[in-house]
Structures are given as C-alpha cells and as structure tokens.
C-alpha cells in the first residue's frame, strides 16, 4: 500500500499510510518521483522534506519509501565531480533536462560504464577486515583511489581480479568466517547523516599551509582542525574560500557551495580546471569535488549538501589522505534548518532558529579531525573543515556565528572597513585568533626558520600597538607622538600593506610559500629594528620613514617564487641605507 | 480541468480558506469569482487534506465569501509572452495597461521559472560601459551580473537607473538590447519619470514595462518581479536579446512578502520578515545570468531603499548576500550636491575583475582602480582627522591625500546625470587624479604600468 500525501506546504509534505518506514528514509513523491527524506514520524503519518520544487503536488499523490536513508555513492569517478546537494551529477542532469533543473530527474552519481584499471594490493588467501585496502585505481594523475573493504565486511579473499573493471563489477570475493561469500566492488554507499567510523581520533599537530600570509604566519590552521570565516557581505568570504580551496596543501578538496550565487559556482567550474596545483603542477580540478546547491535551487537540498560533502571527505580521509572541506556558507544551511523547523511548527529558539541548531553545528564540525583509520595497516587521515558564516549585518551576536565560535579553534574575522579600503583578505588581525598557533610554533621554527616565532610575535605586537597609537593620534594628533611611536606606525603600515595585504587576482601574489612569507616578514621587522637603532643614533625620524628601500619592500610580494634571492638583496640594501643615514642635513 | 467550489470559509487579510476541495495542487492558480462576475487572482499556499489556503494577489476588500466561487485552474501563474511585448505597458499581473490589445502569445510561461543548472551558466565577463565613472572605473558592471542600487529615501536612484538604462552599451557590436522595467509599489511620478526618459531617448521602443503603483494591490507585488523576469528570460534566452532588468523598489516587494507571512502566522525571522526571505529573494535575483551556447543575457539592476538608511536591515543585507555587489548611494554626497551620489567605498562589483583589463577595457584598469580606492579611503581618513584636530595636525602627505579626496569627489564622481564618459576618459581621469600623489605612494600599481602612464620624470 502506497503512502498518500495529505498536506503540502512549500518544501514540507505530510503523507499518510506510512506505517512501515524509518526515520530519515528517502521517499519518492508524486508522479514525477521527487526525492524527499522523512524527518518526522507520528503513527502512520510522516513529514517529509522534499529536495525539489513541490509546485503541482497535492493531497492524494503518492509518497513511496525507498527503504534506505539518504546515501552517497563512493568510488572511482568521484574526483572532479560536480554534484548538487544530494549528489546528483549536475553535468548529467544538464544532458538530460537541459539548462534548467527540472523536478524528478535522476542520474547515477558515479559513472557505471567507465572502466578503471584496478591494481590489486591484496592477494588470495589474505584475511581482510573493514578499512583494509585491497587495491588501487589511478583515478587522476594526482589521486590514487584506494579501494577499501567496506564497513561491516571481513573474511578471507578467495578471489581477486586485476585490470579493467567498472565500479559495480566484482573485483574481489571474500569468504566470511561463517562461510558466506561477499562480493566486493569498487563502489560503496554510505548514509550521509552518519559519520564514517575510524579507529581513534588524534590531536592536530601539523599546520595546513595555505599560501596566504595572514593565515600561515599569523593565524595558522592545523591539519584536522576547524576554522570559521564570518563576515558581512562584500568582505570577501567567498574569494577567500576559493583561495583556500585552490592553494591549501591538502590532497583532496571538497568544496560545498551551499545556497550561494550561481555565478560563483560557475567561476569555480571555469577557474579550477585551468589552475595548477603548485606542488604537482596538475590542474586543481584533479583533486577537487564540488557540491553546488545555489541559492535558486530547492532549499531542503541545501540542508543535505553539507552532509554530502563531509561524507565524501570522510571517505578520502579513510584512505589516509589529508582532506580540506570548505562550506560556503553554513548560514544558508542553518536557514534551511530554520525554514523546515518553522514548517514543522516546532517551538523556535533564538531568532526563529530551531533549538537544536548549535548541536547540529557541533555535529558537523566534529566530523572533522585527524584520525587513525580502520584497517590493519593503520593509516592517518585528516579532515580540515573551514566554514563561512554570513551573519546578518556582519554582527556576530547571532545564533549561527555564536554556535560556530563555541566549537571551532580558528576564527578569521572579516571586516567591512578593511574591505572598503580594498585591503584583502579583509581579515581583521585585531579580532582574529588561532588556538593552534602555540602548538604549531615548534613546527614553524624547525621547518621555516628558528626565528619564525620571534618575528611573528613581534609583528603581532606591532599591530596591536598600532591600534592603541591610532586612538591617540585621533585624540591629540600626529605631532605629539615620539619618534619611536611614529616608527611603530610606519612599520605596522608596512605589515598591513606589504605583508598582510595579498592580491588573490595576481598570478604572483595569490600564493606565497612559507619561505617567501618569512623573508618579507623579516624585511619589515628588520626595518623596524634598524629604525630603532637609527633613532638611538639621533637620526631624524623623517629620514627613516622616507628611505628609498621602503618602496622595494612594498614590492617584495610581487617577486616570483623563483627569484626569492631578490628579497635578500633588498635586505642588504636596507641595512646599507639605514646604516648610511647620518644626523647631518643634506 | 476546472474545479469550482463555493466553500469559501474564511478571509483573513490576504489569505482565504477554501474547504472540501479535492485534487488541489500546491502553488496552483485560483480565480475568485464574485457574484457580480468580478474576478480576483490568488494562488494555493498550502493544501491540508481537503482544506486549501489561498493567497490573493489582490486586495480582499469587498469580497463576499457567501456568494463567491473559487475556481482552481490546475496550473501556476503564467505570462503570455511574445516579441510584441516590446514597447508595451502591463499591470502588475501582466494585463495590458496602455489601452492596447492583448498580446497574441507566442508561449505561455510559468512565472516561477526553474533554477539554472550551475554547469550551464556562462561566467559573465563582458564589460558594460555605463558612462558613469564611479561604476565603469571602480565598480564595473558586466553582462549577466546582478548589481543592485542601495539607496535611501529621497535620493536620486531613479535618475541613476535611468542614466544607466540610457547609456549602457557593450563595446562589441551586438546591439539586440532591451530593457524590462518593473515598477513595484512606486509612485506614479517616479514611474512617469522613467517612461518619459525612455520615450525621450527612444528606448521605449525596446522596453517592456510592468507597473504596480503605490495604490495598486500590495500583494500583486509578489508577482510583478516574477512576471518581469519571465518576460526577460523569454527575450534573452529565446529571442537572443541582451536584457537589462530594472526592478524598483525591492523594499516594497519584501513588505508584501512579510504581509503574507504575518497573515499565515509564521515564525518570523529578523524584523518580522519571513525566515525564507533569503531563498525567496534568491529565486528572483538568480534568474539573471548568461547560459552557455545560448545568445542573450539578463543583467539585473534591482533598486531598494534601505529603511532608516540602515545597510544591515534584512532587505539590503540579504540582497547583498545574493547579488554580485552593490552600488551604494550616499546622503552626504547628495547634500554636497555631488551627482550621481555614489559612495564608492562601500560599493562593490564582484565580477569586475573578469570584465576589465587588456583586451576588455585597458591594461591599467585593475591597478588604478585599487589605487584610487586606497587613496580615496586614506584621503577620507585624513579629512576626518583634520575635522577633529585641525589641518595643522596633518602631515604633508596627509594634506595631499585630503586634497586628493576632495578633487576625486568633485571631478571623478560628480559627473552629473547627463554626462556620458567612455572608459578611456574615465581611466585617463583616474591617472590625472593619481598624479597628484607621489609615485612612490602608488604601491597597488605594477611598475611596468607606472612606467608607461606615470614615468619617473613627471
């Protein structure tokens, strides 16, 4: 007996006759077979959130459970994929229904026909359990897709193939202890709302390098950590998320565009295939998976898109990869929750958001982390999660931003004022923080320069001193400042303009290696130290402020990575000029 | 299949309850026929068993529930479209309002549209020259962009929109250009200003106007922008025209949305606006764009007045999160008689970087743009400082920046509503202003570009 719709209200429908279904099962609704998910059960009545436009549905229409929860397909072919919130491949949808997404169209998430070259790494007679790798597929030039024994399966390999196979072909057979045979394919399914299991969680200890100076040097993020970028519109959240997706040194990047602009997704789609990974020289798309639920696409799928993204990230983590997931923007996801909650007539919490908002947020971010994976030859894999938040009016005193800040360890606060000045990335150094910074100090000192942390704390000191001095200038004017104070202001200005400011649209400046970051930082701090020494020699402050080398320091960020010795030349020039300054008038 | 019911039970504000219905679908169009024969339009907002909640597009005043009939039409709200719509004026529900005949439809299109597959979108990258320096030079508009004007009550946003509609052109040869104008709850005067302006320049021939004036039913406003965008989609994606859509005023639209939400007793989001307003506005704005391998484009310029001049009010706030930038008007500049009063610092065009540079505008565009922004911001800071402490407290360089800011406002921004500057003029003017500053200050510009336009010996 099929379920029948009794009520339709926007993306929420209520169906009767649904006695034998489970919560969070996927259902097909109406004659078009729109995809929905059961979110509430009362006796035989089920409330369903529908992932597609519900216009044209009415009481009496069918509502049929598929008996399975919302799941994603995992296997070779997933890299480079562009999916909607429920993992339908958008390019296939376009072939099927044209330029616009119509209701009820389906397409397999992974290509069933494509043959992959399966290279076995296990052999007949091996005893394997969940998480063990039985073979590999060179999916792209930079990603080796590891075929794992799915969760719940274990036994002795009785047969293992080698060579061309489609993802649904059996590549190995297991005999379980109780004598059953399990056929293993290269594809597995996993329900999105359930985190994939692992052996043990570890503490993040290594940085994820992003090539962005303000991040790596001032507010670093650890592999397996969680960060948030809140900011008002126009402060460059999305550009910055794109920058991270492009340059972060992760092996796999999952980018979730959640309720954002269509053109932005198009930008990613046109940009990423043309950009090269600085480490491998291959197109960035070869390590990227995109989940696109643009703001004109149905709202319920927005809620699912975040889970779809993190489940895919977990799958690659389980192979032992370092994965970065960007979610832009979690506020839209929260709004989708709010809309469904309102339609379910739940008692609202703050600003109409459901009372369970912060626990859902925590759930999501907690699926990030660095873990020892399942399997006998235990691997370490990590997920670094970076979520954008779009607080109304840029005011962080709202439930989504607050709920997020309670969980994450890194806060990159964007400021409208910096954005107006076209200081990008508009991350406000006075409010941002990274709780990983102290733990990562040793790594930076050992791997970049033993003076790294010294210079870093000097830079932070100068920037906060600047904030205090600016207040003073506002009250009493520049004249009342001592020479040393003016030097502080000048150095802080250099830090802002010549170091923290980074042009995402410049081919040279959009990525800076740690070496380059450190060299520029050193130039500026050296300028300060030499300036102090000059002041002690009674040199007029104006001479120090207007030295010629300052212009070259300003252009240091435009020096390409291959010519970094130029920066050392500027450093020598700086010392010479500063030391040559004399007290005489000239 | 027509179904008529005489079971109207309740009318509360814009909502109506019809009982004992069968086979009614969500979002279906409803005609309410009164005993006098008068017909009002509505749509199904919710069906629950045999009850249907209908939202009227028109006022419920004078509606008699005992004798009226509800006729369910089995389809959503549609617009009859045809090439002949160009040059015509329609009301907020798409009926001719210029006394002319009904349009002989080429097609009937559902006004809600369908989401564009992101893989089908073409990223906008073609520069539109509006002839306004503050836009072309600093907040460049490109074809297929959605760039709203954030205005305040009493500011000349209408003049600016008309100027853009009048002067906008692309540098390539393609000239199949049309304007779709949707008046949403504005006054007759303002509407008349646009029509007169379109008429003067001959633009009326290639314009389609939808008018819902201040005294027209408020609820019609929920439909009007959708009709306009449906018409634009037809002109753009079926007839291959480049369409500029102007919708004014989005604030009135949002208020109509709030009215319906309040009548349904929904849990409100901020300031009483419904929690789904972001999604709803996105379903309008996201209809702008370009589709791969399809000629034509929709460029959208919605205008909204910020209540209490507050940028963080939900209407501008949510709009800003969806659109690709904003043109912000300023009350201070208006007072200083600077027209168009575009406040360039909080204004932004997110797509500008794709539309400028060598081959599109000029190689020096990006660098000078960033430098002008930075210098103007610094100049404004200096002016602020001198207002508190007196000019004597400024360093020489700060005085120079303060002077720069003043000159910039006077020469660059204040061009008036009838000056049409081409992009070279705008860029050259930028250089003229930047040369007020020492070369070493221009750190945002590449050395090669500086050497070419600002050689060391000048």
If you had to describe this structure to a student in words, what would you say it looks like?
- The complex is a heterodimer of chains A (586) and B (458).
- Chain A is an alpha+beta fold.
- In chain A, 33% of the residues lie in helices and 24% in strands.
- In chain A, the strands form 6 sheets. In chain A, strands 8, 18, 21, 22, 23, 24, 25, 26, 27 and 28 form a 10-stranded mixed sheet that branches. In chain A, strands 1-2-5-4-3-6 form a 6-stranded antiparallel beta barrel. In chain A, strands 12-11-9-14 form a 4-stranded antiparallel sheet, with no helix packed on it.
- The mean pLDDT of chain A is 92.
- Chain B is α/β, with parallel strands linked by helices.
- Chain B is built from 13 helices and 21 strands.
- In chain B, the strands form 5 sheets. Chain B has an 8-stranded mixed sheet with strand order 9-16-15-17-19-13-20-21, with helices on both faces. In chain B, strands 1-7-4-5-6-3-2 form a 7-stranded antiparallel sheet, with no helix packed on it.
- In chain B, a hairpin with a 2-residue loop joins strand 5 and strand 6.
- At the A-B interface, strand 1, helix 1, helix 4, helix 6 and helix 9 of A face strand 5, strand 11, helix 6, helix 7 and helix 10 of B.
- Strand 1 of chain A pairs antiparallel with strand 5 of chain B.
């Amino acid at each position: 007996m099929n379920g029948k719709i009794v009520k339709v209200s926007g993306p929420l429908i209520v169906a009767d006759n649904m006695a034998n279904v489970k919560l969070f099962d996927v259902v097909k609704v109406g004659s078009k077979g729109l995809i929905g998910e059961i979110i509430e059960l009362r006796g035989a009545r089920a409330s369903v959130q529908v992932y597609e436009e519900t216009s044209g549905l009415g009481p009496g229409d069918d509502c049929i459970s598929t008996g399975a929860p919302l799941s994603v397909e995992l296997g070779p072919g997933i890299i480079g994929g562009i999916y909607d919130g429920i993992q339908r491949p958008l390019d296939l949808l376009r072939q099927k229904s044209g330029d616009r997404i119509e209701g009820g169209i389906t397409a397999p998430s992974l290509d069933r026909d494509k043959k992959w070259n399966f290279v076995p790494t296990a052999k007949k007679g091996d005893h394997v359990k969940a998480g063990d790798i039985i073979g590999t597929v060179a999916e792209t030039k930079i990603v080796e897709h590891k075929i794992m024994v799915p969760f719940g399966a274990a036994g002795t390999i009785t047969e293992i193939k080698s060579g061309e196979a489609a993802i649904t072909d059996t590549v190995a057979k297991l005999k379980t202890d109780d004598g059953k045979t399990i056929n293993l394919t290269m594809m597995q399914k996993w329900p999105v709302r359930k985190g994939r299991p692992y052996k043990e969680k570890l503490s993040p200890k290594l940085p994820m390098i992003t090539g962005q100076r303000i991040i790596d040097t001032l507010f670093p993020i650890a592999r397996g950590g969680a960060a948030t970028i809140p900011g008002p519109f126009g402060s460059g959240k999305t550009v910055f998320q794109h920058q991270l997706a492009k340059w972060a040194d992760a092996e796999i990047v999952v980018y979730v565009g959640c309720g954002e602009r269509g053109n932005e997704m198009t930008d990613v789609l046109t940009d990423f295939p043309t950009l090269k990974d600085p480490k491998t020289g291959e197109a960035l798309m070869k390590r990227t998976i995109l989940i696109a639920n643009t703001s004109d696409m149905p709202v319920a799928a927005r809620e699912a898109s975040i889970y779809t993204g993190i489940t895919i990230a977990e799958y690659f983590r389980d192979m032992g990869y370092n994965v970065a997931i960007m979610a832009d923007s979690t506020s839209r996801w929260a709004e989708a929750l709010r809309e469904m909650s309102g339609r379910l007539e739940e008692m609202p919490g703050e600003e109409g958001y459901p009372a369970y908002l912060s626990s859902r947020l925590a759930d999501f971010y907690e699926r990030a982390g660095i873990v020892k994976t399942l399997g006998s030859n235990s691997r370490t894999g990590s997920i670094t999660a970076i979520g954008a938040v779009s607080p109304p009016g840029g005011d962080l005193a709202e439930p989504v931003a607050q709920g997020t800040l309670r969980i994450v360890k890194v806060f990159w606060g964007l400021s409208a004022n910096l954005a107006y000045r076209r200081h990008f990335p508009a991350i406000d150094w006075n409010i941002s923080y990274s709780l990983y910074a102290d733990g990562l100090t040793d790594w930076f000192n050992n791997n970049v320069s033993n003076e790294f942390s010294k210079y870093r704390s000097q830079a932070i000191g100068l920037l906060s001193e600047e904030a205090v001095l600016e207040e003073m200038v506002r009250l009493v004017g520049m004249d009342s400042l001592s020479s040393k104070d003016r030097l502080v202001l000048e150095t802080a200005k250099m830090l802002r303009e010549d170091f923290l400011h980074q042009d995402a649209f410049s081919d040279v400046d959009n990525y800076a290696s740690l070496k380059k970051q450190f060299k520029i930082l050193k130039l500026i701090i050296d300028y300060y130290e030499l300036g102090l020494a000059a002041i002690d020699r009674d040199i007029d402050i104006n001479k120090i402020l207007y030295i010629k080398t300052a212009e070259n320091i300003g252009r240091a960020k435009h020096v390409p990575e291959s010519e970094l010795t130029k920066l050392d030349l500027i450093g020598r020039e700086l010392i010479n000029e500063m030391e040559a300054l004399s007290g005489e008038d000239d | 299949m027509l179904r008529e019911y005489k079971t109207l039970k309740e009318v509360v504000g814009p909502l109506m309850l019809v009982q004992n219905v069968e086979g009614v679908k969500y979002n279906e169009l409803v005609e309410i026929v009164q005993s006098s024969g008068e017909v009002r339009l509505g749509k199904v907002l919710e069906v629950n068993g045999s009850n249907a909640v209908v939202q009227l597009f028109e006022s419920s005043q004078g509606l008699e529930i005992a004798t009226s009939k509800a006729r369910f039409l089995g389809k959503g709200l549609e617009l009859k479209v045809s090439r002949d719509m160009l040059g015509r004026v329609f009301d907020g529900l798409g009926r001719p309002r210029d006394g002319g005949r009904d349009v002989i439809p080429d097609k009937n299109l559902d006004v809600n549209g369908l989401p564009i597959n992101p893989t089908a979108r073409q990223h906008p990258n073609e520069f539109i020259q509006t002839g306004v320096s503050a836009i072309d030079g600093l907040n460049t508009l490109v074809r297929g962009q959605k760039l709203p004007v954030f205005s305040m009550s009493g500011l000349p946003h209408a003049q600016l929109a008309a100027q853009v509609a009048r002067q906008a052109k692309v540098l390539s040869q393609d000239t199949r250009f049309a304007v779709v104008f949707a008046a949403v709850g504005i006054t007759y005067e303002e509407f008349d200003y646009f029509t007169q302006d379109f008429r003067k320049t001959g633009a009326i021939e290639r314009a389609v106007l939808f008018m819902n004036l201040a005294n027209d039913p408020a609820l019609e406003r929920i439909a009007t922008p959708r009709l306009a965008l449906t018409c634009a989609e037809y002109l753009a994606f079926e007839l291959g025209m480049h369409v500029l859509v102007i919708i004014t005023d989005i604030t009135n639209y949002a208020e109509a949305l709030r009215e319906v939400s309040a009548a349904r007793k929904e849990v409100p989001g901020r300031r009483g606006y419904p929690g789904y307003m972001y999604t709803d506005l996105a379903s309008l704005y996201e209809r702008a764009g370009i589709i791969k391998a399809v000629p034509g484009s929709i460029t959208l310029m919605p205008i909204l007045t910020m209540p209490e001049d507050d940028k963080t009010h939900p209407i501008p706030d949510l709009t800003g999160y969806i659109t690709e930038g904003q043109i912000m008007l300023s009350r201070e500049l208006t007072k200083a008689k600077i027209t168009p009063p575009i406040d360039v610092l909080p204004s932004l065009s997110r797509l500008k970087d794709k539309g400028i540079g060598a081959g599109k505008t000029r190689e020096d565009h990006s660098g000078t743009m960033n430098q002008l922004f930075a210098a103007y911001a610094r100049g404004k800071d200096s002016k602020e400082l001198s207002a508190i402490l007196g000019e004597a407290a400024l360093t020489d360089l700060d005085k120079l920046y303060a002077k720069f800011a003043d000159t910039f406002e006077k020469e660059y921004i204040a061009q008036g509503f009838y000056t049409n500057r081409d992009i070279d003029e705008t860029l050259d003017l930028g250089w003229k202003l930047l040369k007020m500053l020492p070369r070493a200050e221009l750190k945002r510009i590449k050395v090669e570009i500086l050497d070419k336009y600002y050689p060391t010996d000048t």
